[in-house]
Design a protein that fits this description.
seven-stranded parallel beta sheet; 7 strands; globular; alpha/beta
Length: 178
Amino acid sequence: MLQKDGFFRKRDDGLFNKSSSTLPAPAVNTAANAAPLSTDAARAEVRLDERKEAKLVVGPEIKIKGVEISDCDTLVVEGRIEATLDSRVLEITSHGVFQGTIAVDQAEIHGRFEGELTVRKQLVIHATGKVSGKIRYAKIKVEEGAELSGQIEVMDKAQMDKAQSASVSLTRRVGNAA
């Protein structure tokens, strides 16, 4: 049996009364409002302010195969991905699986990773995490119960700088190709 509340509430019960609605005040025409943004720099500044974090969530039961993911600030893997990724942050949830090549600043792994993983700042492998392949990192935190196997190496300062510059050039190359 449906109850009359929330979305099922009647419109005549006063919640949607037109007389109580407020209209926005008209804009006052001042010199600042009247001056159009005509320069490219002003438009670029507005675009930078509007940019939000580019976040991609691959939900449970979703499978993605054979892609290159770029211009993604944060990738959250709840499903399964076979791909190449260059990003800032990677999170693999407890049921998530990533196979492929990754270069990120930070990674948190609760699920499974197989492939080549380069973490420029910190790699965190939680108790439910399983990581195998070629793993390079600047800092690592491994919880008890986590599994780590393969070729594992700590990146020194020169390698971190090289990985960072490779990331920047990959982003520029992909951005210029469009």
